[in-house]
Amino acid sequence: MPFSWLDIIAIAVFLACWSGYTMFARKKAKTTNCIARCLHQHRIHWMYELITRDIRVTEAALLANLERNIAFFASTSLLVIAGILTLFAQIEKLESVISSLPYADMSTHLGIQLKLAVVTFIFVLAFFHFTWSMRQYGFLNVMVGAAPIDLEGKNENLKQYARQMAVVQDQAAHSYNYGLRSYYFSLAVLCWFFHPIVFIVSSILVVYTLYRREFMSKAVRAITVGQDLLWQERNAKS
Protein backbone atom coordinates (compact mmCIF):
# COMPACT_ATOMS: atom_id res chain seq x y z
CA MET A 1 0.00 0.00 0.00
CA PRO A 2 1.67 3.27 -1.12
CA PHE A 3 -0.01 5.39 1.57
CA SER A 4 -0.48 4.96 5.29
CA TRP A 5 -3.73 5.69 7.10
CA LEU A 6 -2.24 9.01 8.16
CA ASP A 7 -1.59 9.89 4.51
CA ILE A 8 -5.20 9.07 3.62
CA ILE A 9 -6.47 11.22 6.48
CA ALA A 10 -4.18 14.05 5.38
CA ILE A 11 -5.41 14.01 1.78
CA ALA A 12 -9.02 13.86 3.04
CA VAL A 13 -8.40 16.94 5.21
CA PHE A 14 -6.76 18.67 2.27
CA LEU A 15 -9.71 18.02 -0.05
CA ALA A 16 -12.16 19.07 2.67
CA CYS A 17 -10.24 22.31 3.22
CA TRP A 18 -10.09 23.18 -0.48
CA SER A 19 -13.64 22.28 -1.47
CA GLY A 20 -15.09 23.42 1.85
CA TYR A 21 -13.46 26.83 1.70
CA THR A 22 -14.50 27.28 -1.94
CA MET A 23 -18.16 26.62 -1.09
CA PHE A 24 -17.96 28.68 2.10
CA ALA A 25 -16.39 31.70 0.35
CA ARG A 26 -18.91 31.54 -2.51
CA LYS A 27 -21.87 31.44 -0.11
CA LYS A 28 -20.53 34.00 2.35
CA ALA A 29 -19.69 36.47 -0.43
CA LYS A 30 -23.41 36.76 -1.19
CA THR A 31 -24.14 38.30 2.23
CA THR A 32 -20.80 39.64 3.50
CA ASN A 33 -18.51 42.31 2.16
CA CYS A 34 -15.33 40.70 0.87
CA ILE A 35 -12.86 41.24 -1.96
CA ALA A 36 -14.97 39.38 -4.53
CA ARG A 37 -18.27 41.05 -3.59
CA CYS A 38 -16.91 44.61 -3.31
CA LEU A 39 -14.78 44.43 -6.43
CA HIS A 40 -17.82 43.33 -8.38
CA GLN A 41 -19.54 46.55 -7.32
CA HIS A 42 -16.47 48.51 -8.42
CA ARG A 43 -16.62 46.75 -11.79
CA ILE A 44 -20.24 47.83 -12.19
CA HIS A 45 -19.25 51.46 -11.51
CA TRP A 46 -16.35 51.10 -13.94
CA MET A 47 -18.60 49.82 -16.73
CA TYR A 48 -21.15 52.57 -16.00
CA GLU A 49 -18.40 55.12 -16.49
CA LEU A 50 -17.10 53.34 -19.58
CA ILE A 51 -20.30 53.83 -21.60
CA THR A 52 -20.14 57.59 -20.96
CA ARG A 53 -16.66 57.95 -22.45
CA ASP A 54 -15.98 58.63 -26.08
CA ILE A 55 -12.30 57.63 -25.86
CA ARG A 56 -11.63 54.30 -24.13
CA VAL A 57 -7.87 54.01 -24.34
CA THR A 58 -7.60 53.91 -20.53
CA GLU A 59 -9.97 50.94 -20.29
CA ALA A 60 -8.07 49.08 -23.01
CA ALA A 61 -4.79 49.64 -21.16
CA LEU A 62 -6.25 48.50 -17.83
CA LEU A 63 -7.76 45.34 -19.31
CA ALA A 64 -4.51 44.57 -21.12
CA ASN A 65 -2.63 44.90 -17.84
CA LEU A 66 -5.02 42.46 -16.15
CA GLU A 67 -4.58 39.98 -18.99
CA ARG A 68 -0.78 40.24 -18.74
CA ASN A 69 -0.90 39.28 -15.07
CA ILE A 70 -3.01 36.22 -15.84
CA ALA A 71 -0.81 35.26 -18.80
CA PHE A 72 2.21 35.32 -16.49
CA PHE A 73 0.63 32.78 -14.14
CA ALA A 74 -0.61 30.64 -17.02
CA SER A 75 2.87 30.40 -18.54
CA THR A 76 4.39 29.85 -15.09
CA SER A 77 1.99 26.93 -14.55
CA LEU A 78 3.28 25.27 -17.73
CA LEU A 79 6.88 25.70 -16.56
CA VAL A 80 6.06 24.19 -13.17
CA ILE A 81 4.29 21.25 -14.83
CA ALA A 82 7.33 20.66 -17.03
CA GLY A 83 9.57 20.72 -13.94
CA ILE A 84 7.38 18.25 -12.06
CA LEU A 85 7.27 15.87 -15.04
CA THR A 86 11.07 15.96 -15.07
CA LEU A 87 11.07 14.83 -11.42
CA PHE A 88 9.29 11.61 -12.42
CA ALA A 89 12.58 10.52 -13.98
CA GLN A 90 14.50 11.42 -10.80
CA ILE A 91 12.46 9.55 -8.20
CA GLU A 92 15.50 7.86 -6.65
CA LYS A 93 17.29 11.18 -6.11
CA LEU A 94 14.13 12.78 -4.75
CA GLU A 95 13.63 9.83 -2.39
CA SER A 96 17.18 10.15 -1.08
CA VAL A 97 16.76 13.90 -0.54
CA ILE A 98 13.54 13.37 1.44
CA SER A 99 15.09 10.57 3.53
CA SER A 100 17.99 12.86 4.45
CA LEU A 101 15.65 15.37 6.09
CA PRO A 102 15.27 14.98 9.87
CA TYR A 103 11.85 13.73 11.06
CA ALA A 104 10.75 13.20 7.46
CA ASP A 105 8.17 10.49 6.84
CA MET A 106 9.55 7.73 4.66
CA SER A 107 7.55 7.23 1.46
CA THR A 108 7.61 4.39 -1.00
CA HIS A 109 8.68 4.80 -4.60
CA LEU A 110 5.06 4.61 -5.73
CA GLY A 111 3.98 6.98 -2.96
CA ILE A 112 6.31 9.71 -4.20
CA GLN A 113 5.07 9.25 -7.75
CA LEU A 114 1.46 9.61 -6.61
CA LYS A 115 2.30 12.75 -4.65
CA LEU A 116 3.96 14.23 -7.72
CA ALA A 117 0.87 13.31 -9.72
CA VAL A 118 -1.32 15.24 -7.24
CA VAL A 119 0.89 18.33 -7.57
CA THR A 120 0.81 18.00 -11.36
CA PHE A 121 -2.98 17.79 -11.36
CA ILE A 122 -3.24 20.94 -9.23
CA PHE A 123 -1.09 22.97 -11.62
CA VAL A 124 -2.96 21.61 -14.65
CA LEU A 125 -6.17 22.75 -12.95
CA ALA A 126 -4.60 26.16 -12.30
CA PHE A 127 -3.58 26.41 -15.96
CA PHE A 128 -7.16 25.74 -17.09
CA HIS A 129 -8.49 28.38 -14.69
CA PHE A 130 -6.00 30.99 -15.89
CA THR A 131 -6.59 30.33 -19.58
CA TRP A 132 -10.37 30.45 -19.10
CA SER A 133 -9.94 33.75 -17.30
CA MET A 134 -7.91 35.09 -20.24
CA ARG A 135 -10.60 33.99 -22.69
CA GLN A 136 -13.29 35.74 -20.66
CA TYR A 137 -11.26 38.94 -20.64
CA GLY A 138 -11.13 38.56 -24.42
CA PHE A 139 -14.93 38.34 -24.46
CA LEU A 140 -15.06 41.49 -22.36
CA ASN A 141 -12.81 43.32 -24.83
CA VAL A 142 -15.28 42.49 -27.59
CA MET A 143 -18.18 43.79 -25.49
CA VAL A 144 -16.26 46.98 -24.69
CA GLY A 145 -15.57 47.50 -28.37
CA ALA A 146 -19.25 47.02 -29.18
CA ALA A 147 -20.53 49.30 -26.38
CA PRO A 148 -22.28 52.42 -27.71
CA ILE A 149 -21.70 55.84 -26.18
CA ASP A 150 -24.16 57.46 -23.79
CA LEU A 151 -22.56 60.71 -22.66
CA GLU A 152 -25.29 61.43 -20.12
CA GLY A 153 -25.38 57.89 -18.76
CA LYS A 154 -29.19 57.76 -18.62
CA ASN A 155 -29.94 55.09 -21.22
CA GLU A 156 -31.38 52.14 -19.28
CA ASN A 157 -30.54 49.61 -21.99
CA LEU A 158 -26.91 50.67 -21.95
CA LYS A 159 -26.88 50.54 -18.16
CA GLN A 160 -28.02 46.93 -18.35
CA TYR A 161 -25.36 46.31 -20.98
CA ALA A 162 -22.76 47.81 -18.63
CA ARG A 163 -23.89 45.46 -15.86
CA GLN A 164 -23.51 42.48 -18.20
CA MET A 165 -19.98 43.60 -19.01
CA ALA A 166 -19.31 43.73 -15.28
CA VAL A 167 -20.66 40.18 -14.94
CA VAL A 168 -18.28 38.88 -17.61
CA GLN A 169 -15.36 40.65 -15.94
CA ASP A 170 -16.46 39.27 -12.57
CA GLN A 171 -16.48 35.71 -13.92
CA ALA A 172 -13.01 36.24 -15.40
CA ALA A 173 -11.80 37.48 -12.02
CA HIS A 174 -13.31 34.43 -10.30
CA SER A 175 -11.41 32.10 -12.63
CA TYR A 176 -8.22 34.03 -11.91
CA ASN A 177 -8.92 33.75 -8.18
CA TYR A 178 -9.46 29.98 -8.47
CA GLY A 179 -6.14 29.67 -10.27
CA LEU A 180 -4.34 31.60 -7.53
CA ARG A 181 -6.10 29.48 -4.92
CA SER A 182 -4.64 26.40 -6.62
CA TYR A 183 -1.17 27.87 -6.15
CA TYR A 184 -1.85 28.38 -2.44
CA PHE A 185 -3.00 24.80 -1.93
CA SER A 186 -0.13 23.41 -4.01
CA LEU A 187 2.23 24.79 -1.35
CA ALA A 188 0.34 22.75 1.22
CA VAL A 189 0.80 19.60 -0.89
CA LEU A 190 4.56 20.18 -0.95
CA CYS A 191 4.53 19.69 2.82
CA TRP A 192 3.12 16.20 2.23
CA PHE A 193 6.53 15.12 0.94
CA PHE A 194 7.91 15.87 4.38
CA HIS A 195 5.18 14.50 6.69
CA PRO A 196 1.37 14.00 6.55
CA ILE A 197 0.85 15.91 9.81
CA VAL A 198 2.66 18.93 8.37
CA PHE A 199 0.44 18.54 5.30
CA ILE A 200 -2.68 18.71 7.50
CA VAL A 201 -1.44 21.76 9.39
CA SER A 202 -0.42 23.57 6.20
CA SER A 203 -3.82 22.88 4.58
CA ILE A 204 -5.59 24.47 7.54
CA LEU A 205 -3.11 27.34 7.52
CA VAL A 206 -3.83 28.01 3.82
CA VAL A 207 -7.57 28.22 4.57
CA TYR A 208 -6.91 30.62 7.44
CA THR A 209 -4.66 32.79 5.25
CA LEU A 210 -7.20 32.92 2.44
CA TYR A 211 -10.01 33.80 4.84
CA ARG A 212 -8.03 36.59 6.49
CA ARG A 213 -7.05 38.11 3.14
CA GLU A 214 -10.41 37.83 1.42
CA PHE A 215 -12.68 38.78 4.33
CA MET A 216 -10.70 40.47 7.11
CA SER A 217 -7.83 42.39 5.52
CA LYS A 218 -7.33 46.15 5.47
CA ALA A 219 -7.71 46.03 1.70
CA VAL A 220 -11.24 44.65 2.10
CA ARG A 221 -12.17 47.45 4.50
CA ALA A 222 -10.78 50.10 2.16
CA ILE A 223 -12.53 48.62 -0.88
CA THR A 224 -15.80 48.43 1.07
CA VAL A 225 -15.59 52.10 2.07
CA GLY A 226 -14.76 53.01 -1.52
CA GLN A 227 -17.78 51.06 -2.73
CA ASP A 228 -20.09 52.97 -0.39
CA LEU A 229 -18.62 56.30 -1.50
CA LEU A 230 -19.12 55.45 -5.15
CA TRP A 231 -22.77 54.54 -4.59
CA GLN A 232 -23.32 57.79 -2.70
CA GLU A 233 -21.75 59.74 -5.54
CA ARG A 234 -23.86 57.95 -8.15
CA ASN A 235 -27.06 58.48 -6.17
CA ALA A 236 -26.21 62.17 -5.80
CA LYS A 237 -25.80 62.50 -9.58
CA SER A 238 -29.12 60.80 -10.27
Automatic annotation (TrEMBL):
The keyword Translocase does not apply. Keywords: Membrane, Transmembrane, Transmembrane helix. The lineage of its organism: Bacteria, Pseudomonadati, Pseudomonadota, Gammaproteobacteria, Alteromonadales. This is DUF599 domain-containing protein. The chain crosses the membrane at residues 6-25, 70-91, 112-132, 183-211. InterPro entries: DUF599 (IPR006747). Coiled coil: none annotated.
